[in-house]
Amino acid sequence: MTESDGEEITDLPPSAKLVFKVLEYNGPLTQKGIVEESMLSARTVRYALERLEEVGVVEEDVYFADARQNLYELTLDDSDKSEQAVSD
Predict the structure, then answer these.
(1) How many other CB atoms are found less than 10 A from the CB of residue 68?
(2) Which of 13, 20, 44, 51 makes an SS bond possible with 40, Cβ 3.0 to 4.6 Å?
(3) pLDDT of 31-42, one tens digit each?
(4) Is residue 45 part of a domain?
């Protein structure tokens, strides 16, 4: 499982786990897209994304359709995803 400073996905708050699952099922999304899919507040999604970035499972990239937004996607490879799904 992916770790950063001893913290794992399972140690994160439920909102971060939900954002992880939204990205896992829907692929790369903007913060606005994550808010719409998860029905969490924008502030909660921002915090969840920060926590997921700290653990090293989400990376931020430029969203070329609108450079004012960022695109968030999982950094896990396929073997890590299947291992993560089993542990959830």
Answers:
(1) 6
(2) 44
(3) 999 999 999 999
(4) yes
Number of domains observed in the structure of the chain? 1
CB atoms within 10 A of CB 54: 14
The three-state secondary structure class of 64 is: coil
In the numeric block, the tokens 């971060």 are attached to 16
The amino acid at residue 1 is M
- Residues 50-81: tens digit of each pLDDT: 999 999 999 999 989 988 899 999 997 544 54
Residue 65: give the domain boundaries: 12-87
Q: Does the residue 74 lie in any domain? A: yes
pLDDT at 44 over 70: yes
The answer to whether residue 5 sits within a structural domain is no
Give the pairing of strands 70-74 and 29-30: antiparallel
Angle at 29 between CA 79 and CA 16, to 5 degrees: 65
Whole-angstrom Cα distance, residue 6 to residue 3?
6
